[in-house]
Amino acid sequence: MGNSASVENGKLVTSFEEVRKTLLEERFADRLEKPLGYWVLPNDRRLPLAFLNHKLEDLLATPFNELTATPGIGQKKIGSLIKLLHRATNDEPPAVPFGISELVPDSVADNLTPVGVKFDPSVVSEALWSQWREAVRKFDIGHEKLGRLAPSLQNLPTVIWHTPLSQYLDHTVGEIRGLRTHGEKRVRCVLEVFHSVYHKLSKAEPGEDLHRLLTPTTILHVHDWVGDQLQGNSLPVDNQISECFSSQLLKQIQIDSGPTVYRLATERLGIGSEPLSVRAQARSLGVTRARIYQLLDDCGKVMNVRWPEGKNMLDQATARFSGLGHDSGELRLFYGIKELCFPEKQKEILRSTIPVAESSHPPLDRPQTTPFQEVTS
Description:
mainly alpha, 19 helices, disordered C terminus
Protein backbone atom coordinates (compact mmCIF):
# COMPACT_ATOMS: atom_id res chain seq x y z
CA MET A 1 0.00 0.00 0.00
CA GLY A 2 2.87 2.32 0.87
CA ASN A 3 4.57 1.74 -2.48
CA SER A 4 1.30 2.34 -4.33
CA ALA A 5 0.73 5.63 -2.51
CA SER A 6 4.30 6.69 -3.21
CA VAL A 7 3.94 5.98 -6.92
CA GLU A 8 0.67 7.92 -7.05
CA ASN A 9 2.26 10.83 -5.21
CA GLY A 10 5.14 10.82 -7.69
CA LYS A 11 2.68 11.07 -10.60
CA LEU A 12 0.94 14.00 -8.92
CA VAL A 13 4.24 15.81 -8.39
CA THR A 14 5.20 15.35 -12.03
CA SER A 15 1.77 16.49 -13.25
CA PHE A 16 1.83 19.55 -10.98
CA GLU A 17 5.29 20.61 -12.13
CA GLU A 18 4.33 20.20 -15.79
CA VAL A 19 1.16 22.28 -15.56
CA ARG A 20 2.97 24.80 -13.34
CA LYS A 21 5.67 25.24 -15.98
CA THR A 22 3.02 25.74 -18.67
CA LEU A 23 1.02 28.33 -16.72
CA LEU A 24 4.13 30.35 -15.94
CA GLU A 25 4.70 30.93 -19.64
CA GLU A 26 4.16 34.53 -20.73
CA ARG A 27 1.06 33.71 -22.80
CA PHE A 28 -0.82 32.73 -19.64
CA ALA A 29 0.17 35.80 -17.61
CA ASP A 30 -3.39 37.20 -17.74
CA ARG A 31 -4.73 34.18 -15.86
CA LEU A 32 -2.41 34.29 -12.86
CA GLU A 33 -4.45 37.01 -11.12
CA LYS A 34 -7.62 34.91 -11.21
CA PRO A 35 -8.56 32.63 -8.29
CA LEU A 36 -8.59 28.88 -8.78
CA GLY A 37 -12.37 28.91 -8.27
CA TYR A 38 -12.71 30.77 -11.57
CA TRP A 39 -12.43 27.42 -13.37
CA VAL A 40 -14.80 25.47 -11.11
CA LEU A 41 -18.04 24.02 -12.50
CA PRO A 42 -21.26 23.53 -10.52
CA ASN A 43 -21.04 19.74 -10.82
CA ASP A 44 -17.40 19.43 -9.70
CA ARG A 45 -16.71 17.14 -6.77
CA ARG A 46 -13.77 16.55 -4.41
CA LEU A 47 -12.80 20.19 -4.78
CA PRO A 48 -9.76 21.51 -2.86
CA LEU A 49 -11.87 24.12 -1.01
CA ALA A 50 -8.86 25.50 0.86
CA PHE A 51 -7.35 26.68 -2.43
CA LEU A 52 -10.36 28.01 -4.37
CA ASN A 53 -9.98 31.64 -3.28
CA HIS A 54 -6.23 31.72 -3.88
CA LYS A 55 -4.81 33.27 -7.04
CA LEU A 56 -3.06 30.95 -9.46
CA GLU A 57 0.20 32.84 -9.05
CA ASP A 58 0.17 32.16 -5.30
CA LEU A 59 -0.60 28.47 -5.75
CA LEU A 60 2.11 28.06 -8.38
CA ALA A 61 4.62 29.80 -6.11
CA THR A 62 3.90 27.34 -3.29
CA PRO A 63 6.07 24.20 -3.13
CA PHE A 64 4.16 20.97 -3.78
CA ASN A 65 4.95 19.54 -0.35
CA GLU A 66 3.42 22.60 1.34
CA LEU A 67 0.24 22.24 -0.74
CA THR A 68 -0.11 18.59 0.29
CA ALA A 69 0.48 19.53 3.92
CA THR A 70 -2.54 21.83 3.94
CA PRO A 71 -5.21 20.57 6.38
CA GLY A 72 -8.03 18.74 4.60
CA ILE A 73 -6.02 18.22 1.40
CA GLY A 74 -5.34 14.63 0.41
CA GLN A 75 -4.29 12.96 -2.83
CA LYS A 76 -7.74 13.14 -4.43
CA LYS A 77 -8.06 16.86 -3.78
CA ILE A 78 -4.54 17.47 -5.04
CA GLY A 79 -5.61 15.60 -8.19
CA SER A 80 -8.59 17.94 -8.50
CA LEU A 81 -6.29 20.94 -8.04
CA ILE A 82 -4.12 19.76 -10.91
CA LYS A 83 -7.13 19.19 -13.15
CA LEU A 84 -8.40 22.73 -12.43
CA LEU A 85 -4.96 24.08 -13.28
CA HIS A 86 -5.13 22.18 -16.58
CA ARG A 87 -8.45 23.87 -17.33
CA ALA A 88 -6.72 27.21 -16.93
CA THR A 89 -4.35 26.32 -19.77
CA ASN A 90 -7.17 25.99 -22.32
CA ASP A 91 -7.27 28.91 -24.72
CA GLU A 92 -11.06 28.56 -25.03
CA PRO A 93 -13.20 26.97 -22.32
CA PRO A 94 -14.91 24.05 -24.09
CA ALA A 95 -18.65 23.40 -23.93
CA VAL A 96 -17.94 20.46 -21.62
CA PRO A 97 -14.78 21.74 -19.91
CA PHE A 98 -11.61 19.75 -19.51
CA GLY A 99 -11.73 17.05 -16.87
CA ILE A 100 -15.46 17.23 -16.16
CA SER A 101 -15.90 13.47 -16.51
CA GLU A 102 -13.04 12.90 -14.09
CA LEU A 103 -14.13 15.46 -11.51
CA VAL A 104 -17.72 14.17 -11.08
CA PRO A 105 -19.10 10.76 -10.19
CA ASP A 106 -19.64 8.39 -13.12
CA SER A 107 -23.42 8.54 -12.66
CA VAL A 108 -23.34 12.31 -13.19
CA ALA A 109 -20.81 12.30 -16.01
CA ASP A 110 -22.87 9.74 -17.94
CA ASN A 111 -25.82 12.12 -17.92
CA LEU A 112 -23.98 15.11 -19.38
CA THR A 113 -25.61 15.88 -22.73
CA PRO A 114 -23.42 16.69 -25.76
CA VAL A 115 -23.45 20.31 -26.87
CA GLY A 116 -25.94 20.96 -29.65
CA VAL A 117 -28.41 18.43 -28.27
CA LYS A 118 -29.52 20.04 -25.03
CA PHE A 119 -28.06 22.94 -23.11
CA ASP A 120 -26.65 21.95 -19.72
CA PRO A 121 -26.14 24.89 -17.32
CA SER A 122 -24.24 22.68 -14.91
CA VAL A 123 -21.15 22.82 -17.11
CA VAL A 124 -20.98 26.62 -17.27
CA SER A 125 -17.91 27.74 -15.39
CA GLU A 126 -17.18 31.36 -14.47
CA ALA A 127 -14.47 31.26 -17.17
CA LEU A 128 -16.94 30.20 -19.85
CA TRP A 129 -19.52 32.74 -18.67
CA SER A 130 -16.86 35.49 -18.76
CA GLN A 131 -16.13 34.61 -22.38
CA TRP A 132 -19.81 34.86 -23.33
CA ARG A 133 -20.13 38.26 -21.65
CA GLU A 134 -17.06 39.60 -23.39
CA ALA A 135 -18.51 38.58 -26.76
CA VAL A 136 -21.69 40.56 -26.03
CA ARG A 137 -19.58 43.58 -25.06
CA LYS A 138 -17.30 43.26 -28.08
CA PHE A 139 -20.20 43.28 -30.53
CA ASP A 140 -22.08 45.95 -28.54
CA ILE A 141 -25.40 44.10 -28.39
CA GLY A 142 -26.19 44.60 -24.73
CA HIS A 143 -29.39 46.39 -25.75
CA GLU A 144 -30.82 43.24 -27.33
CA LYS A 145 -33.63 41.57 -25.38
CA LEU A 146 -33.49 38.07 -23.98
CA GLY A 147 -36.80 37.18 -25.60
CA ARG A 148 -35.71 38.12 -29.10
CA LEU A 149 -32.58 36.00 -28.86
CA ALA A 150 -33.77 32.95 -26.90
CA PRO A 151 -33.74 29.60 -28.72
CA SER A 152 -37.34 29.20 -27.51
CA LEU A 153 -39.70 31.26 -25.36
CA GLN A 154 -41.46 28.24 -23.88
CA ASN A 155 -39.27 28.10 -20.78
CA LEU A 156 -38.16 31.74 -20.60
CA PRO A 157 -40.30 33.55 -17.99
CA THR A 158 -42.41 36.24 -19.66
CA VAL A 159 -41.29 38.84 -17.10
CA ILE A 160 -37.78 38.81 -18.57
CA TRP A 161 -38.68 38.61 -22.28
CA HIS A 162 -37.93 42.32 -22.63
CA THR A 163 -34.92 42.34 -20.29
CA PRO A 164 -31.73 43.43 -22.13
CA LEU A 165 -28.56 41.35 -22.07
CA SER A 166 -26.81 44.27 -20.37
CA GLN A 167 -28.76 43.44 -17.20
CA TYR A 168 -26.39 40.52 -16.59
CA LEU A 169 -23.09 41.73 -18.05
CA ASP A 170 -21.67 42.93 -14.74
CA HIS A 171 -22.57 39.80 -12.76
CA THR A 172 -20.81 36.50 -12.27
CA VAL A 173 -22.85 33.28 -12.46
CA GLY A 174 -22.71 33.09 -8.68
CA GLU A 175 -24.05 36.63 -8.35
CA ILE A 176 -26.88 35.95 -10.81
CA ARG A 177 -27.93 32.96 -8.73
CA GLY A 178 -28.11 35.32 -5.76
CA LEU A 179 -30.34 37.87 -7.48
CA ARG A 180 -33.88 38.24 -6.23
CA THR A 181 -36.43 36.05 -8.11
CA HIS A 182 -33.60 34.23 -9.91
CA GLY A 183 -34.13 30.60 -9.10
CA GLU A 184 -32.35 27.78 -10.90
CA LYS A 185 -34.88 27.73 -13.76
CA ARG A 186 -34.48 31.43 -14.53
CA VAL A 187 -30.70 31.29 -14.24
CA ARG A 188 -30.67 28.35 -16.64
CA CYS A 189 -32.74 30.32 -19.17
CA VAL A 190 -30.44 33.35 -18.98
CA LEU A 191 -27.34 31.21 -19.44
CA GLU A 192 -28.96 29.41 -22.37
CA VAL A 193 -29.64 32.71 -24.18
CA PHE A 194 -26.03 33.85 -23.73
CA HIS A 195 -24.81 30.42 -24.86
CA SER A 196 -26.89 30.66 -28.05
CA VAL A 197 -25.83 34.25 -28.73
CA TYR A 198 -22.14 33.46 -28.23
CA HIS A 199 -22.17 30.62 -30.76
CA LYS A 200 -23.97 32.79 -33.31
CA LEU A 201 -21.50 35.63 -32.80
CA SER A 202 -18.58 33.23 -33.21
CA LYS A 203 -19.71 32.80 -36.84
CA ALA A 204 -20.01 36.53 -37.55
CA GLU A 205 -18.01 37.92 -40.47
CA PRO A 206 -16.54 41.46 -40.40
CA GLY A 207 -19.21 43.97 -41.38
CA GLU A 208 -22.02 41.42 -41.08
CA ASP A 209 -25.48 42.64 -40.09
CA LEU A 210 -25.65 41.37 -36.52
CA HIS A 211 -29.35 42.07 -36.19
CA ARG A 212 -30.04 39.65 -39.02
CA LEU A 213 -27.55 37.13 -37.68
CA LEU A 214 -29.34 37.03 -34.32
CA THR A 215 -32.86 36.95 -35.76
CA PRO A 216 -34.66 33.57 -35.86
CA THR A 217 -34.58 32.13 -39.38
CA THR A 218 -38.36 31.97 -39.67
CA ILE A 219 -38.75 35.65 -38.73
CA LEU A 220 -35.96 36.62 -41.11
CA HIS A 221 -37.71 34.86 -44.01
CA VAL A 222 -41.01 36.57 -43.25
CA HIS A 223 -39.37 39.97 -42.78
CA ASP A 224 -37.60 39.74 -46.13
CA TRP A 225 -40.70 38.49 -47.92
CA VAL A 226 -42.90 41.30 -46.58
CA GLY A 227 -40.15 43.78 -47.44
CA ASP A 228 -40.16 42.49 -51.03
CA GLN A 229 -43.94 42.90 -51.20
CA LEU A 230 -43.64 46.51 -50.09
CA GLN A 231 -41.18 47.10 -52.91
CA GLY A 232 -43.44 45.54 -55.56
CA ASN A 233 -46.59 46.74 -57.29
CA SER A 234 -48.61 43.53 -57.56
CA LEU A 235 -50.27 40.99 -55.31
CA PRO A 236 -48.45 37.82 -54.21
CA VAL A 237 -48.85 34.98 -56.69
CA ASP A 238 -49.74 31.29 -56.28
CA ASN A 239 -49.20 30.08 -52.70
CA GLN A 240 -46.63 32.68 -51.66
CA ILE A 241 -48.62 33.87 -48.65
CA SER A 242 -49.03 30.39 -47.20
CA GLU A 243 -45.48 29.25 -48.02
CA CYS A 244 -43.47 32.40 -47.32
CA PHE A 245 -45.61 34.07 -44.68
CA SER A 246 -48.14 32.08 -42.67
CA SER A 247 -46.22 28.79 -42.48
CA GLN A 248 -43.09 30.58 -41.24
CA LEU A 249 -44.91 32.55 -38.55
CA LEU A 250 -46.80 29.44 -37.42
CA LYS A 251 -43.51 27.55 -37.23
CA GLN A 252 -42.13 30.22 -34.90
CA ILE A 253 -45.31 30.08 -32.80
CA GLN A 254 -44.83 26.33 -32.44
CA ILE A 255 -41.22 26.86 -31.34
CA ASP A 256 -42.13 29.53 -28.80
CA SER A 257 -45.58 28.54 -27.56
CA GLY A 258 -45.69 24.79 -28.05
CA PRO A 259 -47.96 22.36 -29.89
CA THR A 260 -51.25 23.33 -28.22
CA VAL A 261 -51.11 27.00 -29.23
CA TYR A 262 -49.85 25.99 -32.68
CA ARG A 263 -52.81 23.65 -33.11
CA LEU A 264 -55.31 26.30 -31.97
CA ALA A 265 -53.79 28.86 -34.35
CA THR A 266 -53.92 26.56 -37.37
CA GLU A 267 -57.51 25.55 -36.54
CA ARG A 268 -58.65 29.16 -36.22
CA LEU A 269 -57.02 30.02 -39.54
CA GLY A 270 -58.43 26.95 -41.24
CA ILE A 271 -55.02 25.59 -42.27
CA GLY A 272 -55.74 22.25 -43.96
CA SER A 273 -59.42 22.27 -42.99
CA GLU A 274 -62.38 24.51 -42.32
CA PRO A 275 -61.76 27.16 -39.62
CA LEU A 276 -62.97 26.20 -36.15
CA SER A 277 -64.79 28.54 -33.83
CA VAL A 278 -63.46 29.31 -30.36
CA ARG A 279 -66.52 27.56 -28.95
CA ALA A 280 -65.67 24.37 -30.86
CA GLN A 281 -62.03 24.54 -29.78
CA ALA A 282 -63.02 25.03 -26.13
CA ARG A 283 -65.34 22.03 -26.31
CA SER A 284 -62.59 19.94 -27.94
CA LEU A 285 -60.02 20.74 -25.24
CA GLY A 286 -62.50 20.73 -22.37
CA VAL A 287 -61.71 24.29 -21.31
CA THR A 288 -63.51 27.63 -21.29
CA ARG A 289 -63.59 29.98 -24.26
CA ALA A 290 -61.69 32.48 -22.11
CA ARG A 291 -58.86 29.98 -21.84
CA ILE A 292 -58.74 29.56 -25.64
CA TYR A 293 -58.52 33.33 -26.08
CA GLN A 294 -55.78 33.42 -23.47
CA LEU A 295 -53.76 30.78 -25.31
CA LEU A 296 -54.24 32.49 -28.67
CA ASP A 297 -53.05 35.76 -27.11
CA ASP A 298 -49.65 34.09 -26.78
CA CYS A 299 -49.20 34.49 -30.53
CA GLY A 300 -49.29 38.27 -30.19
CA LYS A 301 -47.00 38.26 -27.18
CA VAL A 302 -44.47 36.12 -29.03
CA MET A 303 -44.41 38.37 -32.09
CA ASN A 304 -44.22 41.43 -29.88
CA VAL A 305 -40.73 40.38 -28.77
CA ARG A 306 -39.62 38.25 -31.74
CA TRP A 307 -40.56 40.66 -34.52
CA PRO A 308 -41.17 44.15 -33.08
CA GLU A 309 -40.99 45.65 -36.60
CA GLY A 310 -43.74 43.33 -37.82
CA LYS A 311 -46.78 45.39 -36.80
CA ASN A 312 -45.69 48.42 -38.80
CA MET A 313 -44.62 46.37 -41.81
CA LEU A 314 -47.87 44.41 -41.96
CA ASP A 315 -49.93 47.59 -41.63
CA GLN A 316 -48.14 48.91 -44.71
CA ALA A 317 -48.63 45.64 -46.55
CA THR A 318 -52.34 45.63 -45.66
CA ALA A 319 -52.76 49.15 -46.99
CA ARG A 320 -51.03 48.21 -50.25
CA PHE A 321 -52.97 44.98 -50.76
CA SER A 322 -56.26 46.70 -49.97
CA GLY A 323 -55.43 49.46 -52.43
CA LEU A 324 -55.19 46.91 -55.22
CA GLY A 325 -58.85 46.09 -54.66
CA HIS A 326 -58.57 42.32 -54.99
CA ASP A 327 -59.70 39.60 -52.60
CA SER A 328 -58.76 35.93 -52.44
CA GLY A 329 -58.38 33.05 -50.06
CA GLU A 330 -54.66 33.78 -49.86
CA LEU A 331 -55.26 37.38 -48.84
CA ARG A 332 -57.84 36.33 -46.27
CA LEU A 333 -55.14 34.05 -44.81
CA PHE A 334 -52.76 37.00 -44.73
CA TYR A 335 -55.27 39.18 -42.87
CA GLY A 336 -56.14 36.32 -40.53
CA ILE A 337 -52.61 35.61 -39.38
CA LYS A 338 -51.89 39.34 -39.16
CA GLU A 339 -54.76 39.71 -36.70
CA LEU A 340 -53.62 36.59 -34.84
CA CYS A 341 -50.02 37.77 -34.45
CA PHE A 342 -50.63 41.52 -34.17
CA PRO A 343 -54.19 41.95 -32.87
CA GLU A 344 -55.56 45.49 -32.89
CA LYS A 345 -56.31 45.28 -29.17
CA GLN A 346 -52.54 45.09 -28.57
CA LYS A 347 -51.89 48.31 -30.45
CA GLU A 348 -51.59 50.47 -27.34
CA ILE A 349 -49.58 47.78 -25.55
CA LEU A 350 -47.12 47.64 -28.43
CA ARG A 351 -46.75 51.40 -28.43
CA SER A 352 -46.07 51.49 -24.70
CA THR A 353 -43.59 48.59 -24.65
CA ILE A 354 -41.69 49.31 -27.87
CA PRO A 355 -41.57 53.08 -28.50
CA VAL A 356 -40.22 53.97 -31.93
CA ALA A 357 -37.64 56.23 -30.33
CA GLU A 358 -36.17 53.32 -28.39
CA SER A 359 -36.08 50.80 -31.21
CA SER A 360 -32.61 50.13 -32.60
CA HIS A 361 -34.23 48.95 -35.83
CA PRO A 362 -37.09 51.35 -36.70
CA PRO A 363 -40.01 50.05 -38.76
CA LEU A 364 -40.25 50.61 -42.49
CA ASP A 365 -41.72 54.01 -43.25
CA ARG A 366 -41.05 53.98 -46.99
CA PRO A 367 -40.71 51.17 -49.54
CA GLN A 368 -37.08 52.03 -50.18
CA THR A 369 -36.10 51.73 -46.51
CA THR A 370 -33.77 48.83 -45.77
CA PRO A 371 -35.60 46.36 -43.49
CA PHE A 372 -32.63 45.79 -41.18
CA GLN A 373 -29.98 48.34 -40.38
CA GLU A 374 -26.43 47.11 -40.70
CA VAL A 375 -24.50 46.64 -37.49
CA THR A 376 -20.77 46.39 -38.03
CA SER A 377 -18.49 44.44 -35.79
